Amino acid sequence: MRRDLDVLDALRLVIGGPVCLVTTRWRDKTDVMPAIWVTPVSRRPPLIGLAVHPSRQTHDLIRFAEEFALNIPGPDLLAHTHYFGVVSGRDVAKLDISRLPTFPASRIEAPLLEFCLAWIECGLEEALRLGDHTFFVGRVVAVQAERDAFDETWLVGERPFRPLHYLGGEWYGLLAERFQARLRTDEEGAVQLEEAPEERERREEEEARERERRQREGAE
Amino acid sequence: MRRDLDVLDALRLVIGGPVCLVTTRWRDKTDVMPAIWVTPVSRRPPLIGLAVHPSRQTHDLIRFAEEFALNIPGPDLLAHTHYFGVVSGRDVAKLDISRLPTFPASRIEAPLLEFCLAWIECGLEEALRLGDHTFFVGRVVAVQAERDAFDETWLVGERPFRPLHYLGGEWYGLLAERFQARLRTDEEGAVQLEEAPEERERREEEEARERERRQREGAE
Question: In sequence order, which residues have a C-beta less than 8 Å from that of residue B198 and are 6 or more positions away?
Answer without folding.
Answer: A101, A114, A115
